[in-house]
Amino acid sequence: MQTVENTENPVYPWHTANWRHLERMKSKLPHALLFYGPAGTGVETFAETFAKAMLCENRQPDGHACGACHSCHWFSQYAHPDYRQILPETLEIARGINQADKPVSDDEPAAGKSSKEPSRKIGIDKVRSLADFINVSTHRGGLRIVFVYPAEAMTSESSNALLKMLEEPPANTLFILATSHLDALLPTIVSRCSKLAFPMPEKSVAEIWLKEQGIDDAGIWLAGQGGAPLAALAEAQNGSSENMTMLLDELAAPGDSGLLKTAEKLQKVPMADLITWHQRWLYDLLALRLTGKGRYYPGYRPAQEALANRADIPRLLDLLKKVNERKKTADHPLVPRLALEDMLLDYRKIFAP
Q1: 172 in the same domain as 261
Q2: How far apart are alpha carbons 57 and 146 in whole angstroms?
Q3: 148 and 215 together in one domain
Q4: What is each CA distance from 352 to 254, 301, 315, 347, in whole angstroms?
């Protein structure tokens, strides 16, 4: 059998142990797998790589898909007749998956088609649409796979609809769920799946991989994303370091008079990014105050340590709660500059006498 190198769907070096584990149990797989691990580490990529391999007609000795058979071609085109992805509309659009004839979910607000915002949730109609898929014979006479990602995006209605399928699984069907928030899933769904944990990669392994991708200062980028290498790679490639540094410089000197000027310069930066950087800074201050150890932004550690000692802990906790609330509307701030000014002014208050 000819071996074809797998390049389209990689297994990252920090996931090889899990790949080998699944290879050992491939002859006795359960009807449902639940992969869970931190965002930005490639858990969803692993799930899709595994699904592609399970459907491959010429699976390689290491368990990977060949990348050349009809099945692999269909899979890469999002057109495999025995594979169904259940994703939020926002992810479907980001991946270029055809939106034609997609039903609007019953459990989402009605709106005109042209004005309706793409949903970040997995509505019940997406799960109901699986009924025909799982109750007819497979195209190739073998396995069919359903991939749900991110599983925590399911509504309560869609979760219960999926639960019924997991309780009475159809023959020759494998459900794969992937999530970065295991505690957000229904306990009954979790109990019906065989769980596989994907821990945060070891720092040394992640740094080596980032350097192989051509990323300078890999350790700094990795720390800024809490150890998540794919998130660090995306951040580095987006060229947002200048904007992030501008915000962090402001946070490091909260008494500085340049707040309004900083807000003006950063007003075109996505609010979600600004809130994420701010949120991580606040987590660092809290961790340094309580444990003496920070997780993100090591280049700012001296300034953070000084600020952590000055911060009023109840105000810091209240601000963290407020920032978490801000994140829910980060994609649609009414006036970005004013929202950023408000966020920075709130930050100053935790150091007020």
Answers
A1: no
A2: 18
A3: no
A4: 10, 21, 10, 10
- The residue length of the chain stands at 353
pLDDT tens by residue, 165-180: 999 988 899 999 999 9
Contacts of 240 (CB under 8 A, 6+ apart): 269, 273
Containing 162, the helix (H) or strand (E) segment is helix 156-167
Domain that holds residue 270: 239-349
CB 224, CB 244: distance < 8 Å = yes
How many domains is the chain partitioned into structurally? 3
DSSP 110: -
Model confidence over 284-324: pLDDT tens digits?
Answer: 999 999 999 998 988 899 999 999 999 989 999 999 999 88
- Is the pLDDT at 108 greater than 70? The verdict is no
pLDDT of residue 104: 47
For residue 143, pLDDT over 60 is answered with: yes
The secondary structure of 40-83 as a DSSP string is: TS-HHHHHHHHHHHHH-SS--TTS---S-SHHHHHHHTT--TTE
Q: Are residues 274 and 311 in the same domain?
A: yes
| Residue-wise DSSP of 280-304 | HHHHHHHHHHHHS---S-GGGHHHH
Q: Do 151 and 185 contact (CB within 8 A), yes or no?
A: yes
Give all strands (DSSP E) within the chain, no chain letters: 32-36, 83-86, 144-148, 173-179, 194-197
- Buried/exposed 178-216: b ≥16 CB within 10 Å, e otherwise: bbbebeebeeebbebbeebebeebeeeebbebbeeeebe
Which of 238, 264, 295 terminates a domain? The answer is 238
